[in-house]
Design goal:
Length: 908
């Protein structure tokens, strides 16, 4: 019985001890704790100290806790004051700490020139927004600091579901205040000191602030300027939220700013489902600004459901502004959602944004109201705006700019926006996508229709775009374009205006699955568009680019297009004010364009509408003049497909142009037309060589086709060497030239200069040949190393209809070839220059009667030929005198001069 009684007594003592401990744990304090200005008792139960401030750790260590559902009310609380250290814990469901200071005080000071730590946990509440109207009194302060004075160390942690803290006015992490004599009568802060401020929102906790400033400039009345601020933030775990709401008292925007001085460094990590929420008021910019004034920021958003959410008007994300340096990454499903405007590298800053991994997303889908922005507008992204910016999208990550409203503009993306800017965008890896899209809001279009996407690479500055290893750039413009209210979907690479000076743009699309695709209304790609602009687009290694049309070198710009084992596809027809069919124009409106398409590449232009499809070099009907150059090589192909007679290739519409087709390449215009030197004043050259081919329904060389027939155009040159030209009709204008070694399948109408062979060589014509009045046929003769002769040979296929009645043949002796020796060899025989070829490929003589009314002449480089006559049956009659070499003339003149001097010399 005694043992049992002792056991009961021990148990009772233990229960009493637990009850006493629980009662004492409601509000507890130890070490340095005091109230000011009144001296009041703290705890152990619910406590209200009214307009007084509680200081924990003033000049010495101290601690303070509110737990188990207790209530504590004060004007303000300071942890770690005057080089002391203070710690605080607010814990438990129902526990509530309320701060009510007026505008002459701060409400929370953690690290007020000391070390302060505070944890809000277990569902407790820290309410710093009570008695808000009082903050309009006095100095209008009511600010909050996690690290106030220089030399402080401070931490605020809100952890656990239901745990929350909320504050009015400024919320500063890493403050650098310094006040000291002789400027002040007191000392607060360490001159040249370093402040460390940390905020953690964990495991479902909630932090609400009007604004946030992380990493700030030296402040107070008397800093040295060398003070340093370090601020770090962690928002981690499902349900963990830091919500920035904008001014609770004034209508100010929600602003989350980091590293606002060259001595500041801020780090922000959002992970495992944590979220930063920018929930500001309407009519104001609501922003996350990473770095300014030389500061540095590093921000990461990682893991599924981790996000920065913009839920108010005019959401802004700026990664590096005003000379700052900022790095931001979205990885493993981390996202930014609902933002309106994003700038990476602005106003002298260096900014870098990296998106990595499937479901990592930058969603720019917000809008800005006219009240906030001056004009209502849709999503925008600037990479390099008066600064330097780099954005990388890789391994399945995405950026989307989307517009669903008819505001002042559609979604816009610029790389290198202003002249002093540099912007770079890299999109790499399968599933990695940057997309711009606009929805239609008005069926059939009209003044109230939305605007389509616009992207500029090097608008006025320098822009670089790389799309690699399956990455994609997609522009989709669903807003309806009409003649009266055009809505273009445009990508510019170098410049963007026909009248304003442009920048420098470089774009590379390379790798299987890599793509630039423009779809929807009036899609357009401009490479080197505008005065002083330059653009270069390279498409390589099975990559693809598609739109309705592209200009390379426009309005004084320089454009370069390189296509290497890749494909370009231009299809459809514009419905706006120009209504152009599928097109590629190289050098138009006074621009200079250079294109190289090689290594098995394919260019397709396709449109079955009434505007046809065209490839244009050196000017267009809508863009007169220009200088264009195109080289097609390495077995590459060009296909121009259109309704009957509406496909066209122009080599110099009214400007100048050079096109080379070589290396087994081909150009197929179907039943359409090829123009070489189309209009008066143009100068075009088309060289086809190395087993290549071109085919069309009609070809004009210095000749234009009209609704009633054909007329002379500009200066045109077409040379076919070891290649084939196929067309129903080939016209050589008065200032046209057709020549070379090759095969022509079609009827040739010569008003100009036809020169079969190539110093010398053979040309085969499988079709009719008409020598029009004033035309000339050049036949060349050249001596060979074995003292024989080579001559041009024009071969007509069996059954060719020939009209040589107005033929004028000019025999030309090349180099030092002696016409006398050629005559003596029996070479001056019409059958050495003209053949007829049977269907079986056997050559024979051409009927001499065809030459009955033809005229003949001859000239040589080193001989003077006189008295020349030639008939098909009788051969040639002439005299030829060698022209003395220049050295011979010099010696002869010198001799004559000496003879003259001797004759004039007086007798001895």
């Amino acid at each position: 019985m005694r043992q049992a009684a002792l056991s009961i007594t021990a148990a009772a003592v233990h229960l009493l001890a637990l009850a006493a401990t629980s009662a004492q744990a409601l509000i507890t304090s130890s070490g340095s704790n005091y109230t000011y200005p009144g001296v009041l008792a703290i705890g152990p139960g619910d406590t209200d100290i009214g307009a007084n401030t509680l200081t924990v750790g003033g000049g010495a260590p101290g601690s303070f806790s509110v737990t188990a559902g207790s209530q504590f009310l004060a004007a303000s609380i300071r942890f770690g004051d005057n080089l002391g250290s203070g710690t605080g814990v607010f814990d438990g469901a129902g526990t509530r700490v309320t701060l009510t200071a007026d505008g002459n005080s701060n409400r929370l000071d953690l690290g007020a020139w000391g070390s302060g730590q505070l944890t809000v946990s277990g569902g407790a509440t820290l309410n710093g927004r009570a008695n808000a109207a009082a903050c309009l009194l006095g100095n209008h302060w009511c600010n909050n600091f996690v690290g106030n004075a220089a030399g402080s160390d401070a931490s605020l942690t809100i952890t656990g579901a239901g745990s929350n803290a909320s504050f009015l006015r400024a919320f500063v992490v890493g403050g650098l205040a310094v006040f000291r004599p002789p400027i002040e009568t007191f000392t607060f802060g360490t001159p040249g000191g370093t402040t460390q401020g940390r905020v953690q929102v964990l495991d479902g906790g909630l932090l609400s602030t009007d604004s946030a400033s992380l990493g700030v400039a030296p402040g107070g009345s008397s800093p040295l300027g060398s003070e340093r601020s370090f601020a770090s933030v962690l928002i981690d775990g499902p349900g963990s939220i830091w919500r920035v709401t904008g001014g609770s008292l004034e209508n100010t925007g929600a602003n989350f700013a980091t590293a606002s001085h060259r001595n500041a460094w801020a780090t922000v990590a959002i992970s495992r489902g944590g979220r930063l929420e920018i929930a500001g008021p309407a009519g104001r910019y609501n922003a996350v600004n990473l770095s300014s004034n030389g500061g540095r920021s590093d921000m990461t958003v990682s893991g599924a459901q981790s996000a920065i959410d913009f839920v108010g008007d005019a959401g802004v994300l700026q990664v590096g502004q005003r000379l700052g340096t900022a790095n931001m990454s979205l990885s493993d499903g981390g996202q930014v959602r609902g933002v309106w405007y994003v700038a990476v590298g602005r106003d002298g800053a260096f900014g870098e944004l990296n998106l990595d991994g499937t479901d990592s997303l930058l969603s720019i889908t917000g809008t800005a109201s006219a009240a906030a922005n001056g004009v209502a507008t849709n999503a925008r992204l600037d990479i390099g705006r008066n600064g330097t910016g780099t954005v990388r999208v890789q391994n399945g990550a995405r950026i989307e700019l989307r517009a669903t409203e008819a505001l002042s503009a559609g979604p816009q993306l610029s790389l290198g926006r202003e002249a002093a800017s540099s912007g770079r965008l890299d999109i790499s890896g399968v599933g990695s996508v940057v997309s711009l899209s606009a929805a239609s809001v008005l069926a059939g279009g009209g003044p109230g229709e939305a605007f389509n996407p616009l992207m500029r690479v090097g608008r006025e500055g320098a822009g670089t775009l790389n799309i690699l290893a399956g990455g994609k750039l997609l522009l989709e413009g669903q807003a309806v374009s009409t003649v009266a209210d055009s809505r273009s979907t445009s990508l510019f690479i170098g410049g963007s205006s026909d009248t304003s000076n442009g920048g420098q743009g470089i774009a590379l699309v390379s790798g299987v699955g890599s793509e630039i695709r423009l779809s929807g209304s009036d899609t357009y790609i401009g490479v080197g568009h505008g005065p002083q602009s330059s653009g270069r687009l390279t498409v390589a290694d099975q990559a693809q680019v598609s739109a309705i049309g592209m200009n390379v070198g426009r309005s004084g710009g320089l454009g370069v297009l390189n296509v290497d084992h890749a494909s370009l596809s231009f299809s459809g027809q514009q419905s706006g004010n120009f209504q152009s069919g599928a097109y590629l124009s190289i050098g138009r409106s006074g621009g200079v364009g250079v294109a190289n398409i090689g290594n098995g590449s394919v260019l397709t232009l396709s449109n079955l509408g009434d505007r046809g499809a065209s490839l244009n070099l050196g000017g267009t009907a809508n863009g007169p003049t220009g200088d264009g150059s195109l080289t097609l090589s390495g077995g590459s192909q060009i296909h121009i497909q259109a309704a009957a007679g509406l496909a066209a290739l122009s080599v110099a519409h009214d400007g100048s142009a050079l096109m080379r087709v070589k290396g087994g390449s081909s150009v197929d215009v179907g039943d359409g037309r090829i123009f070489v030197g189309r209009l008066s004043g143009s100068d075009g050259t088309l060289l086809v060589s190395e087993g290549s081919s071109i085919a069309a329904g009609w070809v004009g060389v210095g000749r234009n086709k009209t609704s009633t027939g054909t007329v002379d155009g500009g200066t045109g040159t077409l040379v076919i060497n070891n290649s084939t030209l196929t067309a129903a009709d080939i016209y050589i204008g008065t200032n046209g030239f057709l020549g070379g070694n090759g095969v022509i399948n079609g009827a040739v109408h010569n008003f100009g200069l036809f020169s079969p062979g190539n110093s010398p060589g053979t040309m085969l014509i499988n079709g009719a040949f008409t020598a029009e009045a004033g035309s000339r046929l050049i036949m060349e003769v050249e001596g060979d190393a074995s003292h024989g002769f080579k001559t041009d040979l024009l071969v007509f296929g069996e059954g060719s209809r020939l009209d040589l009645s107005a033929l004028k043949v000019e025999f030309r002796f090349l180099g030092a070839t002696d016409p006398n020796a050629f005559q003596a060899s029996g070479g001056f025989d019409i059958d050495n220059f003209f053949h007829s070829r049977s269907a079986g490929g056997v050559d024979g003589e051409l009927s001499h009667t065809l030459f009955a009314t033809a005229s003949f002449s001859a000239q040589a480089e080193h001989y003077t030929i006189s008295g020349f006559s030639f008939t098909a049956d009788g051969g040639a009659v002439f005299t030829a005198q060698a022209v003395p070499e220049p050295q011979t003339w010099v010696l002869l003149l010198a001799g004559l001069a000496c003879l003259g001097l001797r004759r004039s010399k007086p007798a001895a």
